[in-house]
Amino acid sequence: MRKGNLKGFASFLREEDGMGTVELILIIVVLIGLVIIFKTQLRSLVESVFEKITKDSNTVMS
Q1: Dmax of the chain from CA atoms?
Q2: Please, are residues 62 and 55 in contact by the beta-carbon 8 Å criterion?
Q3: Residue 11 to residue 38: CA distance in whole angstroms
Q4: Which of 1, 28, 50, 57 suits 18 as a labelling partner, its CA being 20 to 30 A distant?
């Protein structure tokens, strides 16, 4: 009876059905953490990019 339990445990360890979900969740958590850490830098970068786009689009239109 003990051998059967060990075989069941070994097959449980080899099972990889939920690995994709766990990996996806970990990637999302890391990305959210990076956004939180670099929030001010990202905001200033996006603002400067949009300023440049607006400035360049005004010169094209005139």
Answers
A1: 85
A2: no
A3: 42
A4: 1
